[in-house]
Write a structure and sequence with these properties.
- The protein has about 170 residues and is mostly helical.
- The protein has a single domain (about 10-160), classed as Rossmann fold, CATH 3.40.50.720.
- The protein contains 5 helices and 3 strands; from the N terminus they run αβααβααβ.
- It has helices spanning about 10-40, 60, 70-90, 120-125, 135-145; strands at about 50-55, 95-105, 155-160.
- A 3-stranded parallel β-sheet has the order 1-2-3, sandwiched between helices.
């Protein structure tokens, strides 16, 4: 009796290399760029009153589902939270705030690629408590609020902008 059903479609090393490439791309795009940019800009920020706002994703709080790419994207965005928290501690004494905006489903973007369709849209909207997807204007408004002088006491936070799809933590 054999316990092997059939050989894998691809060499496991090929699959591992592909997953590693996806992880590397997601880390470079979603974490490393923020680390490098904020490191370079720290000396140029207004003291007091500077604002750093990083864009994450609700996926960082929910976890990626379905594929290596969704999982590595969520992990990279979650790592961005840790980077922001460290910056908030370091820059807070200089009067600089650091926060993270974590949008959920934003309907008028192409972030979901070829998965975009009526059924996909309906499921994402059904996940919200407000019965609609977000808009780019929703994101812009939240960023403007977080960047305003009125937000001077808001720092070290992850702000969910997802219509209630991910409840507060």
């Amino acid at each position: 009796m054999s316990y092997l059903r059939r050989p894998p479609d691809r060499n496991p090393a090929d699959r591992t290399a592909g997953a590693a490439g996806t992880c590397r791309r997601d880390l470079d795009t979603n974490l490393l760029t923020a680390v490098l940019l904020t490191t370079v800009l720290q000396g140029s920020l207004r003291r007091p009153g500077g604002r750093l706002i990083m864009i994450s994703s609700a996926a960082a709080q929910r976890g990626g589902a379905g594929s290596h790419s969704a999982g590595s994207y969520a992990a990279a965005k979650a790592a961005l939270h840790g980077w922001a928290f460290g910056l908030a501690r370091r820059l807070g004494p200089d009067g600089i705030t650091v926060n993270v905006l974590a949008p959920g489903y934003v309907a008028d973007t192409e972030i979901f690629g070829d998965r975009w369709g009526e059924e996909f849209h309906a499921q994402k909207v059904a996940d919200t408590l407000v019965g609609r997807g977000g808009t780019p204007a929703d994101v812009a408004t939240a960023v403007a609020c977080m960047a305003s002088p009125a937000a001077g006491y808001l720092t070290g936070q992850v702000i969910g902008l997802d219509g209630g799809a991910v409840l507060g933590r």
